[in-house]
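Obj.: predict assembly geometry.
Materials: sequence records (below).
Method: joint structure prediction, all chains together.
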Amino acid sequence: MTNYETVIGLEVHVELKTRSKIFCDSTTEFGGEPNTHVCPVCLGLPGVLPVVNKTVVEYAIRAALALNCQIAGFSKFDRKNYYYPDMPKNYQISQYDLPIAGHGYLDIDVNNEVRRIGITRLHMEEDTGKLVHQGTITTTPYSLVDYNRAGVPLVEIVSGPDLRSPEEARVYMEKLKTIIQYTGVSDCKMEEGSLRCDANISIRPVGNEQFGTKTEIKNLNSFKALYRALSYEVERQTGVLNKGGRIVQETRTWDEREGVTLPLRSKEYAHDYRYFPDPDLVPMIIDPEWVEDIRRSLPELPDARRERYMQEYGLPGYDAGILTSTKELADFFESCVSAYPNPKAVSNWMMGDLSRLLNAGGVELTACKIKPAQLASLLQLMDEGIISGRIAKTVFEEMFASGKDPGDIVKEKGLVQISDKSAIMAVVEDVLAKNPKSAADFRAGKERALGFLVGQVMKTTRGKANPELVDKLLKEKLLQEKL
Amino acid sequence: MEDRIAAYITRTREKALEQARAVDRQIRNGEKISPLAGIPVAVKDNICTDGILTTAASRMLAGFVPPYSATVVKRLEAAGATLPGKTNLDEFAMGSSTENSAFFTTRNPWDTGRVPGGSSGGSAAAVACGEAVCALGSDTGGSIRLPASFCGVIGFKPTYGAVSRYGLIAFASSLDQIGPFSRDVTDCALLLNAICGHDPLDSTSARFDVPDFTRFLVNDIRGMKIGVPEEYMAEGINSGVREVVVKAIALLESLGASVEYTNLPHTEYALSTYYLIAPAEASSNLARYDGVRYGFRAAKTSDVMDMFMKTRSQGFGAEVKRRIMLGTYALSAGYYDAYYLKALKVRTLIKEDFDRAFEKYDLLVSPVSPTTAFRCGEKTGDPLEMYLSDICTISLNLAGIPGMSIPCGFVEGMPVGLQLMGKHFDEGTLLRAAYTFEQNSDYHRAFPVL
Ligand SMILES: [Zn+2]
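Observations (raw structure tokens):
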């Protein structure tokens, strides 16, 4: 049986979070009653004209620079003509042969190997509206149209056919999301549709230079869907070829529920878009000075930041990778480290308790009540011996719930660690008196009995006893009496 | 009068009176008023007027009331002009006779058996018969100049980008330009003062210093260098028209201009270039009329594609459909390079013809049209014959330069227009030549007897 190699290219649409739409002043805010975020321009009423929102061009350049693209000196908008009721003008203003940027790349880590994925082009375009069907698309007696999204700015980022597995595609997509989020030009929320993906996929016998016939997969609304749909498609295409069949070049849609890709009626996508330069918009001459200004304003990007965390903070690659996976997380980390310069300890808390609580509560870091300075002071309290590690975890949960300062919580709840030797000794003596059997066990060499006794002391002091001291005093006492 | 001419699709008597009363109040209060205050300026019905029916003479937009005004309308209102109504045109400005209006044909005031020209026939006729003092039209291939010529009034197509297109229902975006009709050159200059200038709502509107156009109203063209393109005087031009134009040129020469014949060698390709570019843009511009959001929607349709097709086949007239099909074809995969792209290249050559000519001349002159106004129905059966009416005017739109039609005589009682052509943004030279011609002739004083 032939061994096949998978070839994947992704077309990713990213919604830019400018305040107003790409060619008018209407708001880009998500949601809203249908057809309330509209004006004559984005509704395509007769006689109105588009005017480019300069911030859209700036954001597109920002994203492109972060993806190592070259910015065009001369660029223009074109009309992509096709009829669909969610398009107010029955053409979409997009960019065809002179996109704003291209020839970039993005590095991904797969199995500890760095793979460089080409970015063929990045172009700007307007989003369309949305059809609201009454029931399913095939049985609906009529459909309503909501044009709130019509004219929202998008960039389309097209990768080269450089991805070699569904896993690489998923990693690429995640990395792309991270980079775009870093630049601040988009929220990249897949669930709100501000990050969307179509995939082109083909397979070819290993060693073949020539590409196989590709299919295009639409409706990939999550990383999981992307991975599953591509995996399914690899299997399907392999099956077809192994049975001596041929791959049909077609557009397929991912059916999440059935876990299969299905062909879309080819008629629907057999378009001749009749692209031509939009005569309502003048070509853009991009000032290289402006591009350099934008380049200078870019934040440190994830790869560079990860590298720095390893060098400067001595963090393991794994920690550095996770901490830099979003800009918010990395900013939180650095802010915390500046107040409490023990990077590994901060990293452990963030990757452990913080991420556990965020996940469990479904809370975004941006909405987290704990501020970096508060985590730093919690760690400080531990270092100073004011609270134990165990108490710290309780305090942390309280901080997460209320947003209060750890010092205040410790005071209010009387959680200050008992480090007074005589106070602890009194409890130790009491516990030993009440648990002669365990004491005898320990003396007979059963080390495990010590754990029980420590637990009893901690229980009596409601966790506040300094655990090291408890341990030390218990051992002292037991050994003393043995003699 | 209106019964016989049928210049207006919509009359806005109440609005005009209200505007006039406001001007009266200003005068009573001793306020300073603009030269256009209280002057009735009719507006072609493809220019949007807030709260007033705007149809582009199409069934497709029957009942469409825009919630916004075109920039030019706002500027006229700001200048105190009143709006007597919205004038008839060829549907979506596609035509040369106003016979393509979906509603009715406007008549030529000089002979009601003849067409007023098009597409801005309603505006030209209204000004010619005194139903409006001035009017606005739009010119994509001659749609201001041709009806001005046929109706014996002044029509001015400014440089592309000199007047905002915001609110003008697009036919061919890279060619469309709004401009004035008037009975004399002075009014023309006053209207240009009102409507020219950059508009942030139109990306193609130019940033330029708008002069006070009345300062070009000078009765002196001594030393002006005038070229006459031979291609515009060749066979195909009616001999009567040629005679009148030659006489007009002689008058300009006698007033101190130097006149020479010259060449615009790519003229013969202008018509075919135009009929690729204009329909290509139109096919896309008119795609939005689908019955989903506004305007006409066909009844009894089975699904959305059926609705699109029935709406468009019932809503558009024959000429509009012909141009949409022509344009769709020109932009189609496999034909784009051979047709549309080639047309763009020829367009550049045509523009370069003018650039070269204007290295030598301040002004070019020619007839506006090969004939005077033809009879109603005479050319409706033969679109190519109709297209030839624009043979002298379309090159200017392709090149983006300003052009003007001024009355320069009659053939068998029908007016003839002289076309003046100038450099980009050199409207002033046209006005100066037109004003001088006017001061030394009396064609503009002739009035049709109805
Ligand atoms: Zn809008």
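Conclusions so far: The longest helix of chain A spans residues 223-242.
To do: check interface contacts against the pulldown list.
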